[in-house]
Amino acid sequence: MGGRNQTPVVEFVFLGFSGIPNSHIYLFLPFLAIYLVTVLGNLMIFTLIQLDPSLRTPMYYFLSHLSILDICISSVTVPKILVNFLYQRQTISYNQCLAQMFFLSSFTGTEAAMLAVMAYDRYVAICKPLHYSHLMSPKVCTILAMATWIWGALNSTLHTALSTTLSFCGANQIHHIYCDLPPLMKIACNDAHINELVIHIATLFVGGGPFFFIILSYVFILSSILKIRSANTKRKAFSTCASHVTVVIIYFGNGMLNYNRPSAGYSLGIDTLVSTMFCIITPMVNPLIYSLRNKDVKGAFRKVLESQEKLKHHDTIN
User: Fold this and answer.
1) Buried b vs exposed e over 50-79: b needs ≥16 C-beta within 10 Å?
2) Which of 135, 139, 148, 173 is least surrounded by CB atoms within 10 angstroms?
3) What's the mean pLDDT when you consider all of the chain?
4) What pLDDT shows up at residue 313?
5) DSSP code per residue over 180-202
6) What residue spans define the domains of the chain?
7) CATH second-level architecture of 2-317?
């Protein structure tokens, strides 16, 4: 009981990279490269959607939001990791930890909801094509997009509020590479059963709700596609969903591993790998999936390159 009167924790120490000797030397450049590819790749997608009139459709409107979310998720975690590598000290202040947790929970919750909205867009396009322009009007799209951001913010407010009820009694070593509620609960010295119950319920709604909605949407989509007689039309319908399905599998697969792993057989190395995959690698992979598998995006990219070449040629002549 005496340990409960210790000085309050003012900073935390991340142990995620402690098993890698001289990690600051070997990991700084790879993490910097990943971050730059993530930001530039997602900015490219976002810029192409804004520049090319052919991409100003509901599907690409939501994709532009997804690109911004991926930049935000990566920016919440990676810059702090890079700074810690430079200073060779894996620490974060208590207030920075809460802020990191708030924004990370907000953006990841928003992304889950955004992927559900994108599934709804595909459902309307394939199952109710005659009503598409009405059901997915600009006003509806704006409301849906804003609702996903609010959904994520409410989720993060709950998680951050729960974290403020935790007491650490001097324990400040987090078995993780960034601040998140589950690893913080593991080092708390007060009873965190209510926190655990609430986080499981929140995860069920914030993660499980959108995932179930996506599965349901694709059951109807698949049913509609199988009724199409033309093989070419079937192929086109499948291709419009392929990138989204790939992103959904990667995002929710990594998310489930990150937040719903059994505590038995816990490994710091596996935890670090899963956390890296979820919040650092996934945001980098998403723009690659949409650019490599999407003819419209590749076509828009070629248009931009051709227009730049024409401008250079014109400037050279003048």
Assistant:
1) eebeebebbbbbbbbbbbbbbbbbbbbbbe
2) 139
3) 84
4) 55
5) -HHHHHHH-SS--HHHHHHHHHH
6) 2-317
7) Up-down Bundle (1.20)
